[in-house]
Amino acid sequence: MDETRLGADVRPDGRTSFLVWAPTASAVDLLVDGRDVVTMSRDRDGYHLAVLDDVPAGSTYRYRLHRDGEEPVERADPASRSQPEGLHGPSAVDDAGAFDWTDAGWRAPPLREQVLYELHVGTFTPEGTFDAIVPRLGELRELGVTTIELMPVWQFPGERNWGYDGVLPYAVQDSYGGPDGLRRLVDAAHGAGVAVVLDVVYNHYGPEGNHLRDFGPYFTDAYDTPWGDAVNVDGPGSDHVRRFIVDNAVRWVTDFHLDGLRLDAVHAVIDRSAVPWLEELATAVHGVAGELGRTAVLIAESDLQDPRLVRPPERGGYGLDAQWLDDVHHVLRTALTSDRSGYFADFSGLPDLARAARDRYVVAGRYSSFRGRTIGRPAPDVPYERFVVCTQNHDQVGNRMLGERLNELVDPAQARLAAAAVLLSPFTPMLWMGEEYAEPAPFQYFVSHTDPDLVTAVREGRRREFADFAWQGEAPDPQAPETFERSKLDWDLRSKEPHAATLELYRELLRLRRDVPAIAGEDAGPQEAVVHDDTLVSLRRRAGAQTAVTVLHAGDEERTVTLELDGRWRRELDTADHRYGGPGIPDDTRTLDGSDGRLEVTVAPWTLVLLTQETHPR
Question: Is residue 264 annotated as a catalytic residue, yes or no?
Answer without folding.
Answer: yes
